[in-house]
Amino acid sequence: MAKLGKRARAAKEAFAGKENLTVEEAVALIKGNAKTKFDQTVEIAMNLGVDPRHADQMVRGSVNLPNGTGKSVRVAVFARGAKAEEAQKAGADIVGAEDLMEIVQGGKIEFDRCIATPDMMPIVGRLGKVLGPRNLMPNPKVGTVTMDVAEAVEAAKGGQVTFKAEKAGVVHAGVGKTSFDEAKLVENIRAFVDAVSKARPTGAKGTYMKKVFLTSTMGPGVSVDVVSATGNS
Q: In this entry, which stretches build a coiled coil (predicted)?
């Protein structure tokens, strides 16, 4: 515990007074203070000028990070027949229909992404109370309700990240690992910010991107200059 205490204090001191950094500066600071034995996730959080309680201010979408997430993603697919076979060949971890619905209803959720063919949505719809709070509900707006299940599975496995604004207008996601090269992390971060920027809803008024923060799993957070995050600096 003493060692962890020293690390925490050292990290806090390193981050003290650091704010509104460029993306490059923030990434270097986070990587330089990631001292744990495991490979930490680099996370981004964005405060947006929206109220997602209103339908015309909901922010939702997906982005294929150019350098992946560094995370192994378990994918479940609701499909039958040829589409189920297609999903299995593409590398889906779990494939099923009513049988998969029963497994999920029983509380066994051993997947990170859920994909469904359109004809399966009457079944998947019954799982809204289970999948919805976990942000796992398939949605055509992010490409997880589709007939092209192979492409969707490959995208999920290859580094696709989905995002959705929470109650306070915050969007967050993992954008890589601290073991990634700084340039690759910066590229991923800007790709994510660009996707959120393009997902600006029609009802958003005034400043859309208010604040951007970066952190690692075990490290302090640091604010990033919004202009730098967009790559327009």
A: none
